[in-house]
Design goal:
Number of helices: 3
Radius of gyration: 26 Å
Mean pLDDT: 93
Oligomer: single chain
Low-confidence stretches: none
Strand content: over 45%
Length: 454
């Protein structure tokens, strides 16, 4: 590594006690663009700002993970600020951005907080930022993306035990962001949290995202949180083209908590959601997956287990496809089940749901509950040991239940019945199912039964 890159050449001590802020700022101003931290502990008391347009191409790098920056002041340890105002289209990128600002990189370094309002990394109007092999702990927000960024890659990072959010997309216009192979855990206000933002092309793949709530933070207050939280209820906010795949997404139950929470406007004029949740292991929260006001979400091939209320809660949503998932309770104290409320144009197919208890759930929920829904197709599912019912629908219309098996496998059956339709409805059909046990159909529910095995 060239001498002009080494922060020690500009006076940094790296002894864990000296204030190295001025020396590191000097290295930013006069160095060759690679801010290199040899093994050591570098204490700073204020943000190291790197204006990319004035500095030129920039990298922050440690020595194979042996270098730590301790942020003892308010704000981010490092703030990388660019000027990119275009999109990801190469034609929208100004020549100066390609020459001076492209691909700011942070790798092989740890950031540790020593102030309650310290943050880790903040990115503003950057182009093609790469964060790799970075650990951020004991700060407020680990990685904070604001205003506008394009083509962000975050991989092999540890965002761990922070009082705010691990990765926070906060009022940001951001297209093309990949989060992979990272450990994002024990962050009090969420693992990955998106609020008030316009985001396109978000891939969250191959990560371990878990225990993101207040339980491990001593006296700090608990707030509703999630391992992955996407909130587009603010004016002009939207998040589309999202893949959440091949992650372990687990937690401990917390008040108002979820493993994955997607809150949208429920506005018919909004663009398609284009969100896929696939191939994950998801478990142990109040509600494991919670969708509200969502449009165009596919949930497939997941194992979703152990909730205080529901494995899947869908409210005021449309075009939700739920296919080939395994829903179950993992411990006797937890629950299971799927609940759709005031939703329409949804399918549930090829899923298995099993209560695995003698007495039923503390929530008193049946395995599948449909409430004030319309145009819902349920097919090819197996519902075992539900209490009080396997399938329970109320005030629903245009519901089709076909090719399902509802069973009570206990030596002493506990279910009140296999299926119930209550309240008012019309054009509901129940056909070609195995439904041993009682079937309860209210006269005004508008249900026709056809060739079921009872």
């Amino acid at each position: 590594m060239a001498d002009m890159s080494d922060v020690r050449q500009f006076g940094a001590k790296g002894d864990g006690t000296s204030d190295d802020t001025a020396a590191i700022r000097h290295a930013v101003e006069k160095g060759d663009g690679v801010l290199y931290f040899p093994a050591g502990i570098y204490r700073i008391s204020a943000t190291i700002g790197i204006p990319l347009a004035g500095r030129g191409p920039c990298a922050i790098t440690g020595e194979a993970g042996t270098s730590t920056v301790v942020m003892a002041g308010v704000g981010p340890a490092f703030r990388l600020t660019g000027t990119h105002g275009g999109t990801g289209d190469p034609g929208s990128v100004k020549p100066g951005v390609w020459k001076l600002e492209r691909m700011p990189t942070v790798r092989n370094i740890a950031i540790d907080g020593a102030h309650p309002q310290a943050d880790g990394l903040e990115l503003v109007e950057t182009m093609q930022a790469v964060l790799e092999g970075v650990m951020v702990r004991r700060v407020r927000h680990g990685i904070h993306l604001v205003r506008r960024n394009r083509n962000v890659v975050i991989s092999h990072c540890h965002l761990y035990h922070n009082t705010g959010v691990g990765l926070y997309l906060d009022g940001v216009n951001l297209h093309q962001v990949n989060v992979s192979n990272s450990h994002i855990s024990y962050n009090r206000l969420g693992g990955i949290r998106i609020e008030g933002s316009e985001v396109r092309n978000l891939q969250i793949t191959g990560n371990d995202i878990e225990y993101n709530n207040a339980k491990s933070h001593g006296g700090l207050p608990s707030e509703p949180t999630a391992e992955i939280w996407i909130d587009t209820t603010a004016p002009k906010a939207s998040v589309n083209e999202v893949t959440i795949a091949s992650n372990t997404i687990q937690a401990t139950n917390s008040p108002g908590g979820a493993n994955i929470r997607i809150l949208e406007k429920g506005d018919a004029s909004r663009p398609p959601g284009l969100i896929v949740i696939s191939g994950n292991v998801i478990g142990s929260q109040e509600n494991n997956v919670h969708l509200s006001g969502a449009y165009g979400v596919t949930i497939s091939g997941n194992t979703i287990y152990s909730c205080a209320k529901r494995n899947l809660l869908v409210e005021h949503s449309r075009l939700i496809t739920v296919g080939s998932n395994h829903f179950r309770r993992h411990t006797p104290s937890s629950g299971t089940g799927v609940h759709l409320v005031s939703s329409e144009d949804c399918t549930i197919s090829g899923c298995s749901l099993r209560d695995e208890s003698e007495e039923g759930q503390a929530s008193g929920a049946s395995l599948l509950e449909l409430e004030d829904c319309r145009r819902i197709a349920v097919s090819g599912c197996v519902f075992t040991d539900g209490v009080p019912y396997g399938i329970d629908a109320g005030n629903c219309s245009d519901i089709q239940v076909t090719g399902c098996i509802v069973a009570d496998s206990r030596k002493a059956p506990r279910a009140r019945g296999a299926l119930r339709f209550s309240g008012k409805g019309k054009r509901n059909g129940v056909a070609l199912n195995n439904l041993p046990g009682k079937i309860e159909i209210a006269p005004e529910a508008g249900v026709k039964l056809h060739e079921n095995i009872n």
